[in-house]
Amino acid sequence: MTVFLWGVLPYAAFVLLVAGLVWRHRYDRFGWTTRSSQVYESKLLNIASPVFHYGILFVLVGHLIGLFVPETWTDALGLGEHAYHLLSLYSGTAAGALAVAGIAMLIYRRRTNAPVFRATTANDKLMYLVLFASIVLGMVAKLAHTSGNGYDYRHTIAPWSRSLFTLRPDTALMEGVPVLYQVHAVVGMVLIALMPYTRLVHMFSAPVQYLLRPYVVYRSRDPRQLGPRPDRPGWERAGL
Fold first, then answer.
1. 20-54 residue pLDDT tens
2. Cα–Cα distance between 107 and 102 in angstroms, integer?
3. Where are the transmembrane segments (predicted)?
4. Which of 233, 185, 205, 209 is nearest to 7 (CA)?
């Protein structure tokens, strides 16, 4: 089971991620969207959506730093183990609470607003469940190991994560990891595998073309020209 969870499942999740992105891009480009329900309700959405997105962005950045920045780098910056633990604890908890509050409001909105609820698919419900579970499990795992310097995942989970990129995963590192962290990691891998098959696929879209597109020029109109215009025979010249 250790080899499967920490030596096979990560690559299976990655294969499903890449395969899903390729499939969606080739055969479901018009479905590559958030399927926004703003047309049904926007007041609560305008609050919940930014809260969730900012929270999940901070959570993602925290995971990238915690897993892929070696301890020697933070030591070189003068950030000791205890200071790093406190920074990780407080900032991670704040980011997780922000994400949980956002997703809770989004779920409440979908459940209480009839048109939005009718537009919610089984796929959406599964996505919300796995996403919510992943965030909450991460917070619970962190808060359950707060005494002293907490659980030092930078000696186990972090090097295991980096070993995946060498195609020689060190599965033994995960054997002594607390159960809550292990469950959080497994649910996280399931979430990664599901991403391209849900509305979360939109996170892989970046409006890069906006940086290169020409400016959109807006011109005011003469108030005297507003209203119906008399019909004119023939074609009109462009720009008139």
1. 999 988 888 777 777 788 888 888 999 999 999 99
2. 9
3. 6-23, 44-69, 89-108, 128-145, 179-197
4. 185
